[in-house]
Each structure stands twice: as C-alpha cells, then as structure tokens.
Amino acid sequence: MENLLLGLSTAMMIENLIACFAGVFLGTAIGVIPGIGAMAAISLLLPLTFALDPLTGIVMLAGVYYGAEYGGSTASILLNLPGTPSNAITCIDGYPMAQQGRAGVALFVTTIASFVGGSIGILVLSNLTPLIVDVALAFGPAEYFALIVLCFVAVSAIGGADPKKNFAMILLGGLIGTIGIDIYDGVERYTFGSAHLLDGLSLVPVAMGLFGVSEIILSVKTAGAKVRQSISFRSMIPSRSDWRRIFWPMLRGSAAGCLFGPLPGTGPSVAALFSYANEKKLSRQPERFGKGAIEGVASPEASNNAAVQTAFIPTLALGIPGTPTMAIMIGALMIHGVVPGPLMIENEPRLFWGLVASFWIGNLLLLVLNIPLIGLWVSLLNIPYRYLYPSIVVLICVGSYSIANSVQDIVVVLLFGLIGYVLRRQGFMPAPLLIGFVLCPMLEENLRRAMLMGRGDISYFFSSTISVVALAISILLLASALFGPLLKSVLIRRRRVSS
Amino acid sequence: MLRKICGLALAALTASVVSTVGASAQYPERSVTIVVPFSAGGNTDVIARVIADHLTEELGQPVVIENRGGGGGTIGTRVVAKAKPDGYTLLFGVTGTHSVNPNLREVGYDPLQDFAPVSVAVISSVLMVVHPSVEAQNLEELIALTSSSSGSRLNFASGGVGTVAHVAGELFNERTGSSLAHIPYKGAGDALNDVVAGRIQVYMNNIPAILPHVTSGTLRPLALASATRSKLLPDVPTTQEAGLEDFEMGSWYGLLAPAGTPDDVIARLHEAMTTMVDSEKVNERLAALGSEPTVSESPEAFGEYIKGQLDWWKEVLDRPAFH
Predict the structure, then answer these.
(1) Exposed, middle or buried, A192 (CB in 10 Å: 0-12/13-18/19+)?
(2) Contact residues, chain B, for A342 at CB < 8 Å
(3) Structural domain span for residue B81
(4) Which ipTM value was assigned to this complex?
(5) CATH code of the domain in which B93 resides
(6) Between 20 and 30 A from A169 (CA), which of A163, A322, A339, B122?
(7) A184 to chain B, closest Cα gap in Å
(8) Would B113 be classed as within a structural domain?
(9) pTM for the predicted model, two decimal places
(10) What would the pLDDT profile of B69-101 be if each residue is shown by its tens digit?
C-alpha cells in the first residue's frame, strides 16, 4: 500500500499524467487501425523518450503498448480485420456479432473485458511479482515443451469444421515458421540465399496479410451488404444473460493471460488463442462458437490485456524481455542508465511503483475513453468500402514497414494476403495456420533444448511437476476428444436399447 | 511559368553542386545518419545512441540513428556498403557484421574492402560467471570441476552459433579439456532465463549482458577474459591472473563509413570520436550499460584491428567444434 502511494504520488505528477494520457490515447488509435501495432508505434516513439525523464518516457511507451490491446479488437469486430495479431482470434466471434447487428454490445464487452483483464494483471504485477518471477524461472525447456503441447491440444479445436484441413494448416504454418537460421547448428532453412529471410518471417506482416489483406480481397465480391447498427448507448449495454455468459470466461481469460504474459516467448497472442480455445472446450454449447458467441469475444480480450500487464514482470524484475516490444522498453530504460534486473525494484522504487500506478490510471482512462468512442467506431462503418478498404491496405503496409524499416515486409504482407485469399476460398481457415506459425518453432526450439539438457534422455520431460501435470492434462484432453464422441454414442445406444 | 521551372531547376542544380563541393570543405553541413544494423532498443542500438549524442555535440549537426535490422546485421551493413561515400551515411559496425558473419556465410559485402574505418567505440570483454549452485569459488576450482568426470553434466549457453559466448565456451572446453555442453538460444536475453534459474551452470558473455545479475549477487563472477581488469568490476581478476593464459576475447562496436569517403571527412569524424574518452557524460552513460568508451589511435589503426579480428575469428571458426 505504501508502495502504491509512492507510485501514485509520482504518477500523478502533471507531466506523467500527460504522458500516460498521450500513450493510451495513441495506443487505442493505433490499435483500432489495422496493421499499425504497438511495436511499430513504440519503435517510432522511442527516440522521443530520450529527451524525457525515464519514468515519463516509459509511462508513455507502456501506455501505447496496453492501449493498443484495448483498441485492437475494434476492427476485428467491425471489419473482420484484426488491429494487432493478438486480436486475430476475436474476429471469429466478434465479426458474426456485428453481422447480427450487435457490434455495439461486442465493443462494450471487449472494453469491459479488457479492463477486467488489465486490472487483474496489474493486481498480479503489484502483489505477486516475486512469486511470478519464481514461476517464470521454473519454466525450463521441458516445462515449455509440455506447456506448448498442451496449447496445441487445446487450440486444435480452433478453425473450420474439417479437422483434416485444420491439421494441414497447422503443418503449413509450422513449415513457414521454420524459415531462417536454425539456432542449433546455424543451418539456413528455406532462405534461398536471401539475407532477408535469415531471421525468419515476423508475426505482424504474416498475421496482417493472412487476416487483413485476404479479408479485403474476399470482400471485393461481397462489399455493399451492410448491416444496420444501432449506436444508441442503450443498445450497447449487454443483456443480463450476456453478463452471466461472460463473467467466468473473463476471469478464466485473465488467469490464462497472467500465466502466459510473463513467460518469455508466449505473450498476449498465445494467451488469447489459448483462452478462446479453452472457452470453446468448456462451453456446453460449443456449436455457438464462430457464430457470434459473446464468450469468444470476452475471454481472449481479457486474456491479452492481462498478458500485456504481466509481461512487465520478467522485463522489469529480471531484465528479460518476453517479446520484441518489451526489448524496446528495456532499451528505453537503459538509455537513461536504468538497468532492469533483480535490483531494479529495490534501487528504483519510484520508477517501478510509479509505472504500476500509471497502469491503473491508464486503464481507467482507457475505460472512460473507449465507452463513448464505441458509437464513433461503429459509425466508421458508414464510410463506403471503396474508400475504407484501400486506406486500410495502405495502413497495413505502412505498419508492417515501420517495424523494421523493411520493404520486404510489405512484400510479405501482400503475399500472405494472396495466400490467405486462396486458402479461404478453398475452405481452409487462417487461424490454425497462424497457430502453427507461432507454436511450431517454439515446440521445436524447446524440444531440442530439452534433449540437449537431458543428454538425450526422454525422462527429462517428466523430471518436474509442471511438465508432468501439463503433459497429463494434454493426454486427458486428447483422450476425451478421441474417445468422448465414441463414449457418447455408446451411451445413447445403450439408453435406446434399454428403453 | 516555364521560366520559373527553369529557374528552380537551375537553383537546385547550383545547390547540389555547391553541396558536393562543400562536402569536404566544411563537413558536415547537414544531418548525418548512422545506420544501426539491428532493431531499436537492443544493446547495439543503445550504445550507438550514446555515441550519436556525443557526435551531435562535437559536429554541430544532428547525428541520427536509423535502425535497419535483419539477417543478423547483414541487411543494414549491406546498405551502408553500397551507400554514397559522402560522410552522411555511416555504419555502427560490430563483431557480428565484420568479424563473424563474413566467415560463416556469403554476406554480400566485403568487411575490409567496402568500408573506410573511423574508430572503435566500445570493446567489451567476456566475463565468466557461474550460477551460485556451482561450488567453484574461483577459475582454478571451476577448471578442476569441469575437467573432471562430473563436468560433463554442466551446460554453457550462448545467443546462437558463432556468437562470442559460443566461441568462448568451446575454446574453454578445448583449452581446459572440459566437456561443457553448448545450449544455444535465440539471443542473450533468452539465455539469461535459464542461466539465472541455474539450468545453465557456466556462462561466458560480454559484461553488459550479465552485469545487473552480478551486482545483485544472482551470478558469481570468476574471471574477465581481458588483458586488464575492468573499472566496472575491479575485484574480478583477469583470466591470466586467475591462471588461464592466452584466453582473451570480446566484442567490439565501432564507426565505419563506406569505402571511398574523403580522408578529411574520416579525419573529422575520428577527431570527434577521440573526445569521447574524456567526456564525463559518455563515460557515465556507457558505464550504466556495462561498457567503457575506447577510441582507436587513428582510422588506420582501427582498420588493422578489424583485420586482426576477422583473422582471429576465421581461425577460431575453422576449428572442428564449430562444424
């Protein structure tokens, strides 16, 4: 409490308040705009922060980072175009909601879910940091491997109706994910001698092409069919049954976000994928998912916001960045001579607690900022598509370029737009491809590292409680998926026989 | 109208002629770009920005950083190799771009022929640390442990094949008859998680990557692979003092221009770099990053240094441990 007061006293200083507001406002805006994500905006803003006090600078950059998660779902819901990669999964149920005329409700729910997720994330960050650091350190390659296996089993339900097609997409995504130098022996894979492919393809252009550009190409044929949206405040308020539906999914999503956020490499995208799949698994009516289920919007949005807040734990307390964006945050602090690491909270209490307090202020600002803006976003749909879509393609290209000043990334965006278009026309879904692209390289990396550390002994995977539990849950899930329907049909037959 | 256009064109032409002629007369006349071949916020980027700030003050013109990451530094380095040699596009080169990568693969530039060296900026030595769970209190005890039969259970980490941490570990194995297992990661940041957790017992990497964990006591420093001790860690002995002869290595960061840049431009830049060593501000800011400023005696001396490093790495990377 004393710490938080110290933090509030610094965060409430006028320049820090302005920085916080500027950050979250800009964050929401770039989140709403498809293609320009937090990473691009933070890279561009970084030089600006060198002139500021370190706390003011990091408050602003952090505001952009979590603000983008708030805004990111807007375009997913309204246009079926994700604002950032971690909002891609929100398209699956958010867009059908908009088509049913419930865009306002969906946007209201995402704002609430984002606030709940963000708040739980901050609570964990301010109260459980030492514990979370221990948990993050307990994750070695065997534990990561087990967790990724669990993710794979859990998310295998995401995608179209045909499991064979989903599996093919996961494999294709995995192959695309292996492009680049193999870190274990330096061999180049699928680079065709091009230096641009040595580091592999990055997530943003691939996701933006697959989901964004392909959607725009697809809609060329169907554009014009618009659904009238009511934008009165009353129509946005979720009904009582909506509230009942989203209560537990939001909390479960937040919990998953708090687990995946601090683990280096996973972050908000994996957290959102996992939460969505988890809700679909737990739901009594999984068939509603993909057709506008409100849980499918609330859970991943709570999850990615919890994840972006807790991602600060390893960044600040260990100096270990979990995502490329976090690496930039560390750079922003280091340039001022503040070195994130085990001693930072002790040595720089003003900075650490000031930042935590600014998260509270920022999340409140985002809540206040976003609710009135919903009407404005929805009315954006009135812009004729012939103006809206070309501008979005331009923005997607600008956003992909500005992350690494790379023209090649624009080519990647457009290429994956075409690939996504062809695949979707053939009934393949882009979500499993993205899952394969994100998870397969992590699976390989940790499998090989675990085998190196275990000196080739397979029992290394069962040497810790975490990995044993995660693997056991995976096997149970697999078994229930394989034998569940069989068991059900047997039971039904028996009942019929007995009656 | 036509006259106006002609006039404008003429003015532009005169301006451009004047600026090319004047380039060497009173360099720099406009802002100078330093290409950092890595992404913003990384270690190289942060060091480069400290240097750029210093050069801005010295040259009286803004010196700005442009990040051109990708291909382990190859993309940005290539851009500068092909840039106009007028002193307005420079490169912040490092061990990876000029000593390691050209020995590993076709990079599309010649690290010696395509560049006019200005000066080194920072030389960072390798610090050998162990996790506190390792009993060894000094380098001698560590060698005794790693070269014994139980030593083969221990791991060392690196940020990838051909990085200084990888080379340091393999050379340590070779020199001491140890068999530490090499566990590569995607970068030094990724490796740190397992080092701090103790799954990696021995770690040898540049000081900046480890310093915060040494000062906090999470990791135990044993020796510095350098000829002299570091001001940042005065209590840590050099490898020679600790009993391991001829085991000195590290990474360098320095300023280079495209080949063909006028000599007086190079001289002006070198002069601006030399004042860095006495600048309190630069020393303070680099110390926070775990580094100290270093300047080459002359641009030629830096050229010799780069050549020496390229040869050293070539010889090292040709060894069987790296194939």
Answers:
(1) exposed
(2) 212-213, 216, 218
(3) 30-124+250-322
(4) 0.84
(5) 3.40.190.150
(6) A322
(7) 6
(8) yes
(9) 0.85
(10) 888 899 999 999 999 999 999 999 999 999 999
